[in-house]
Each structure stands twice: as C-alpha cells, then as structure tokens.
Amino acid sequence: MENFRKVKTSEQDSPLPFPDLPPGVVEMKVKEGSKIRNLMGFAMARMELKGTRQIVFSGCGRAVTKTITCVEIMKRKLGGLHQVTKVHYKTLLEVWENKDPQPDGQVENLTVHKNVPSICILLSKDPLDPNEMGYQPPETDFLPRETCKPKGTRGQGLTEYAPGCGTVWPLRLERVKAQ
Amino acid sequence: MAEPAPPAEELALRRRLPPRLPRRPGDVYVNMQTDFRAQLSRCRKLLGPGGGCAEIWIHGLGLAIHRAINIALQLQAAGAGALRLAPSTSTVELADGLEPPGHPDGRPPLARARNNSAIHIRVCRAPPTP
C-alpha cells in the first residue's frame, strides 16, 4: 500500500437505529477532529430550548470515545436525561490511487471497504422504553452509597442500577452481593 | 499552598489505576496491552457451553472503549443472531499522583483528578424465537 495514496473516503449513511424518533431531532455527528467545546456549545444551546426534547450523538472509528465524552458532559450539566446506546459496524468506502503512475498512463484504483465500530447515543428529556436494549436511566447524583437501592427487577439485571453514587466499578459488586 | 510548587522537571506523573475493580466471573476488562484475539477468545469461551455464563459484561476505559466495542460486535457477528448487546456509558474519576522524586520524606504528593469515559457492554443470549 505504500505506493498508493488515499483519494476519497465516503461513508454510507444509514438511518438512526432508534425507533419512533421525531423528524426534527437534533443530530450531532462527532468526527475525529471535532472540538468538544464547539460541539457542547451548540448542543447545550439547542437542548436548553424547551421545544427540544431529544438529541442524538453519533460517531465512528476514532471518534467513539469523543462521542461518549460529549454525552457524559451533557448528562452532567443537564440532569435527568434518559439514554439509549447502540453500537454497530459502519462501512467506510476508501478509494486509493496509484501514487506514481506508469509512463503508459495506467492509473490503478483500489476501493477498500472498511468496517469500523460506530456508536449512536440518544439522550431524551422524556422517559424512554426501559425494555429497549441499551437503555440507561438518568443518574441520581450525589447520593450517599447506603441510600442507593436497586430499582426493582425489570428483567434487565444491572442495567437500571443508579450509577450516580461515586464511581461505577465498586457499586456493581455491591449490587451483586446484595442479591 | 504556602510553599511554591516544585519546578515541573522534578515532578513525575504517576497514573493510578481506577479504584477497586469488581471481579465477578462474567466481568471482562479490556485493555490495550493484551492481544485482541486472546481477549476475544476469552469472551467466546465464557459464553460458550463450558463457560458457565449466561451473560458477560465487557468493560472498556478510555482508549480501550474502541476495542471493547469491537470485541462485542465480533461476538455478535459470530453468534449468528443469538447474542444481544446492551451498552451503557459512565464517567470514571482517575487521580494522578504528582510525586516530586528525591523527596521521599514527608512531603505529601500533589494529586490531580481527571475524568475518563468508560463503556460497559452487556452481552446476553437472546431468547430463542418460538
């Protein structure tokens, strides 16, 4: 591949994997070079309007971590948001061209199909279906650990546990011990 | 602080591990040091007939988020529709200890707290369709 250079990258747009989305939902496409400050400025301004009930953050490849960071920052600033997370593979089409074409003018093109992990996160002010795979209820922040109780069994195990009390890691162990 | 901070070249940044990782049998923590195929086959064995886990949790912190998602999606692709993924995200607080080298006596280490994103993916077997 060292004789080739990338000419074009395109991704196939697929519909959002969330059921029953209103048509005017704000969609934030996070790219690798996006600045979190700019993304959050725009997203917070739109979300603070009373009419905006839902927002979707999506990113693929190297932007996945940044997408999750944006979502966590928004959840911290605006409490009480319901979250649904979906992961899937996204296909990128890259076109590579021969760097030094032969004197007889043959230009070789390579089309590469790349499957990259991609994430889509929906944040909503209105309650969502808790039976949806990837549903996460809003965090109840700043509660002392003793008052954190499991939210009852809805057949989803640990998913609906309130992770707001301290860090997530030790709380899951406490939840398992209580069962 | 009353005393001036030590010059930057004296400080050694020591990253601390996230606190107290739980270790249930179905918990898999993904990192960037271990080979990808080894981590994938470990998850596959846990979910397989001899593994004894009906569901596993795949955890990834920071840079390992990408790898955790990849492992989960590979498991789903190989499982031929029998596996379902339920991801959730969280923020983990990490503390970096700034210890001036050459002063082992008494001076308390400075600390800097930072946040990092984490993903937890629940992989469970889907109930068979009637």
From TrEMBL, chain A:
Transmembrane segments: none annotated. Residues 1-11 have a biased composition (Basic and acidic residues). GO terms for molecular function: RNA binding. This is Ribonuclease P and MRP subunit p25. Pfam families: Alba. Residues 27-90 form the DNA/RNA-binding protein Alba-like domain. The keyword Nucleus applies. Belongs to the histone-like Alba family. GO terms for cellular component: nucleus; ribonuclease MRP complex. InterPro entries: Alba-like_dom_sf, Alba-like_NAB, DNA/RNA-bd_Alba-like. The keyword Nucleus applies. It comes from Chelydra serpentina (Snapping turtle). It is found in: Nucleus. Its main location: nucleus. GO terms for biological process: tRNA 5'-leader removal. Keywords: Nucleus. Residues 1-20 are annotated as: Disordered.
UniProtKB/TrEMBL annotation, chain B:
Keywords: Cytoplasm, Nucleus, rRNA processing, tRNA processing. Gene3D superfamilies: Alba-like domain. Its main location: cytoplasm. The keyword Transcription regulation does not apply. Belongs to the histone-like Alba family. Component of ribonuclease P, a ribonucleoprotein complex that generates mature tRNA molecules by cleaving their 5'-ends. Also a component of the MRP ribonuclease complex, which cleaves pre-rRNA sequences. Component of nuclear RNase P and RNase MRP complexes. RNase P consists of a catalytic RNA moiety and 10 different protein chains; POP1, POP4, POP5, POP7, RPP14, RPP21, RPP25, RPP30, RPP38 and RPP40. Within the RNase P complex, POP1, POP7 and RPP25 form the 'finger' subcomplex, POP5, RPP14, RPP40 and homodimeric RPP30 form the 'palm' subcomplex, and RPP21, POP4 and RPP38 form the 'wrist' subcomplex. All subunits of the RNase P complex interact with the catalytic RNA. Several subunits of RNase P are also part of the RNase MRP complex. This is Ribonuclease P protein subunit p20. It comes from Chelydra serpentina.
